[in-house]
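As practice, study what follows.
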Amino acid sequence: MELRQLTYFVAVCEELSFSRAAVRCFISQSAISHQIARLEHDLGVQLFERSTRSVVPTEATIRLLPLAKQMLSLESAIRAAVRDSGPRIRLAANMSFATRSLSAIAGAREAHPGAEIEFVIKPFRQRIAAVADGDCDLALIRGSVEQPGLTVEQLWVEDLVIAASTAHPLAGRGDVTLTELGKYPLLLPPETEQVLLHNVVRHAFAELPTRPSYGPPIPPDHTATMELINRPDAWTILYADSATEGIATLKLAGRPLRIPVSAVIRSDIRRSPILVTLLAALHSS
């Protein structure tokens, strides 16, 4: 039994989907299925009842899950305990934050030449857990999170992009309204995977007489931009860094759609000069 197998096991338990768990863990679906099968073989039990439509945990899984989480938490605690006591910061994020993060890291290192600042790529839930467990000093997230022992500090506000196929009826317009967009299908991932975007849409349409017309959810192994190409009558909402060539971006009349980007840190952390400098650099970026 390996710790990575427990990581994949927890992901499948929480996602109830091998494909979504694979995306979350940045590996292929076949690889995660293989590792879960190895774990089942090592333990001598079936952990999931699989079908083409669902993944159902067994009784053995219900007993194993809290122990697996405890093991992974201990791993993070061990890594935190043996880290060098010198000037070192671990920043957890995903690649969408890379440009701003690396610019801020460069500025912080210039101010503290002896500092070591790591940029660690982790999915959302693992970022939060890494900060809570002490494995990382701070994490960048969109939106917010409420968890005892953690503090959320807003860094900047990010505009969202309205995107559609270049063949969309509204493509090429100077600007569009939400009321006009509401006549066409809105493509988003399932709300369980993108709560933030769904909340932004609900808030934007709250004061309008119309409501968005949702198309089918974007599957976890598909991209929003590819779905737009296949559905030229549809539209979606992207983070600004997700826009790609071949997709039209529509200017929204009135108030733009925005979301906060925040740093998550432990409430009891000692704010070293390096951490203070890095947070200030992220604010100004």
